[in-house]
Amino acid sequence: MKLLAPAIVASLxxxxxxxxxxxxxxxxxxSKNDSCCSSLExxxxxxxFYENDEQYKNRTASYxxxxxxxxxxxxxxxxxxxxxxxxxxTLGAQSNCxxxxxxxxxxxxxGSNNINDGVTLDLGLMNTTIYDEAANLARFQxxxxxxxxxxxxxxxxxxxxxxxxxxxxxxxxxxxxGNSFYTARRGFACDQVQNFEVVLADGEVVNANATSNSDxxxxxxxxxxxxxxxxxxxxxxxxxxxxWGGVRVHDKNxxxxxxxxxxxxVDNVENYPDGSSIVFWSxxxxxxxxxxxxxxxxxxxxxxxxxxxKFMAIPALSDTTRKAxxxxxxxxxxxxxxxxxxxxxxxxxxxxxVFKYIVDxxxxxxxxxxxxxxxxxxxxxxxxxxxxxxxxxxSKERGGNVMGLDLVKDNAVMLLFxxxxxxxxxxxxxxxxLRAVTEEMQRFAASxxxxxxxxYLNYADAYQDPLGSYGSAxxxxxxxxxxxxDPKGMFQTQAPGGFKISKVKNSTFTKQEL
Length: 514
Hints:
Layout: H1 6-11, H2 16-29, H3 35-42, E1 48-49, H4 54-61, E2 74-76, H5 81-92, E3 99-102, E4 119-122, E5 129-132, E6 137-140, H6 146-153, E7 158-159, H7 170-175, H8 183-186, E8 193-199, E9 205-209, H9 214-220, E10 229-236, E11 238-239, E12 243-251, H10 255-268, E13 275-284, E14 289-298, H11 309-312, E15 318-319, E16 322-324, H12 326-332, E17 340-349, H13 352-372, E18 379-387, H14 389-397, E19 412-421, H15 424-447, E20 451-452, H16 472-485, H17 490-493, H18 510-513
Parallel strand pairs: 2-4, 3-4
Antiparallel strand pairs: 1-2, 5-6, 6-10, 7-11, 8-9, 8-10, 12-14, 12-15, 12-16, 13-14, 13-18, 17-19, 17-20, 18-19
C-alpha cells in the first residue's frame, strides 16, 4: 500500500504540522496504513476507525449479510453533508484511493457497499428524520433505516412509501427503485422523492429535483450509485392510519392453491390498489422443511377485504393478520442475520405454468442442498411479487424514472430466489448451485415465451445486469447524467461497488423499443 507522499501533502495544501502528523501515522501504522485514511484525518474528519478499533469491529459486524463484511483499511463516519463533501474531495485528490459507500448495509454481496484495502464511507451517523408539515415532506439522511422514518412520522399521522422491513436502509432502496406496500397505489418509492441533496465528485453539493438538475433527478430514481452521494432525501408524505396485514404460514401441500391464487391476484392489482401480497416458499432449519409464507397488507386498513379471499380460504398453520401501524408491520418482516446471503432475481409473465415450475425447482434445489449441508443450517426463499403494468403507469404520473418498466407490456411476476448459508467455502458452492438452477428457470420461462427481460436492481446479485435491463433509452439517460455530473468518472473507477453504468455493454429491450 502507498503511504501519503510529500507531493500529495503539498497538493492538498497541508501545513508542515499536518505533514509531520501524516509521517507519524505512516510510521505507526506501517504496511497496514493507507495514505487515503491518513489524508482524511488531516482533512479534519474525526470518526475514522481502524481494524483494531471497537467501532470498526461493530460496524463491520452490523452488515446484514456476512458476505458484505469486508476489511477496509479504515471506516469513516461523516456526521454531515459538509463532512461527506470533505471526504469526497480528499479521496478524489488521490486517484489511487478506492472507496465504498455504506448506508443501511443491507445489500448482500461482497463489494456492493464495502471494500477490501480501501476506505468505507459509513453514513450510519447521518440518520435523522424531520417532518416538514408545511411542505408535506419527510426529510431524512442516508444512514436512516425505514423503521426510524416510520417511527418519526407516526406521531403526526403520516407516513411515506418505503421499505417493507424496518432494518432496510433508505439510500440503496430509493436509488434502486423501491417496491413498497403502496406501489399499486402510488408507484415505486423512488417516485415519491421530491428532491435529492447530492455531493458530486468534486465535492460540490447540489439539489436535484423537477426544476433543478432535473436530468440527475430522473437518473437517481433507479440509477443507483453512479453520480454522487445522496446526503438527504425529501420524500412526499401522506396521511395514514393503521394498516391491516400480517403473515400467514401454510403447509407446502397447499402449493397449487397459492399458485392459482397469486396469478389471479396479479391480474387484479389494477382493481385493488390498496392491497399488497408477497408469497414465498422457504426452507427453515427449525422446521427442517419448506413452508409457504404469505405477507398481506391493505394500506387503507380494511380488514381481510375481498381482494384476499382466495388466499384467506387456504388453511393456515399460523396467522398474525391484524390492524397495526406501518412501522409495526415492517418490524415483523425481518430476516435472520449471521448468514452469507446469495440472491438472484428474474421477472416473468404472469403464467401459472412458469410459476409452478419455479416452485418445483426450488423444492428440488432444497433437497439437493440438504444432501450437501452438514448441519442443515441454511435458509431459502423462493419469493413472488406482482409487477403489473399499472406500476409503470403510476411512475409516469409522478414524473417518471429510469427503471424501464414501461417497456414491459404484460402483467408480470418478480422472483427473488435466494439461499442463506454459513461459511465462506459453503458460500462459493451455494453460489454455483443457485446460479445453475436459476439459469434453468430462465431457460424454461423463455421456452414458454414468458421471460421478461427486466431485473429489479435491489434484488440482483453481482453477476446480473439490472441497469442494462432498463432499455437503451434509459441506459443513455444514466450514462449522460454520470458523464455530466462526474466527468472524470470518479464514481465509476474509485468507487467500484454496486452496479456501474460503465460496465453495461448492451441494453436489452431493443426490439420492443424499435
